[in-house]
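Hi team,

Below is the intake form for High-affinity nitrate transporter from Gossypium anomalum. Please confirm the fields before the structure is written into the shared record.

FORM ID: S-0412
PROTEIN: High-affinity nitrate transporter
ORGANISM: Gossypium anomalum
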Amino acid sequence: MSERCNGHGDDVVTRRGWIRVFFLVSPRDANTAAHVIANKNSPMVALLFHCLGFGFLFKSPSHRPSIAEAFDCLVEDKGESMAATGLLLGLILVLGCFSEICVAIISFSSLQTTLVVTASHPQRLLRAGEDKITVRWGLNQSLPAGTDSAYETIKVQLCYAPISQVDRAWRKTEDHLSKDKTCQFKIVKRPYTTGNQTLEWTIERDVPTATYFVRAYALDADDHEVAYGQNTDAKKTTNLFEIQAISGRHVSLDIASVCFSVFSIVSLMGFFFVEKRKGRKAQQ
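The structure came back. Fields below:
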């Protein structure tokens, strides 16, 4: 084993501290892991830690391993036992999963308002499954050129207004977009273009009764939200509209229910009259 593949015993204490910080393990486990890292039998762990950004755990601050160097050490040490690195390998994989989750968290407050969105509709109570909304969106032309350089896709959604979110946890607004339940109805998702776009959207039949507004998100190549725009103000109090959900009732059903109601009343009265006549005849 070459010298460059060996650990630095003087750094065990420092490594132990970092391991406790990043992995939240007990002092004894951290001490064991630190000695494993310092041991020459850990090139695989060194490589994986380096790829996750924790390569400084393996060398002194003045000499941190490159990925190529870690690969060389791994090949040089391939014949030796790797059992000592099993626990750390599992921890690294878990850390990798957490890293992906953290990267994917996007907060609404971090997005820029770069899109102009309008929604036109009949000035009355809208009916789900019948009425249409004309949505227009585009980049705010007052912004500097290149503002939309990262925009790849536009996602337009129908969103609940605050008045329709009260006491409804399933519609709650969250700053983390992965947890946000404000916008639950997709209007359209299409590639981004620099010009203004228009879409006439028929309100879907499963939209519940509530007050709404329209919001558009600009997505990057990774399908992550990077900007937005909406047809209302920041407090979501202007340009709102109400939608009435489908009740499941039709005119023919209403007529049939009325006819059956009248028939039942007439039948009851007829039965009562017949029974009364029978009673009189019996008395005679």
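SUMMARY LINE: Confidence is low (pLDDT under 50) at residues 3-25, 55-67, 77-84, 98-103.

Thanks, M.
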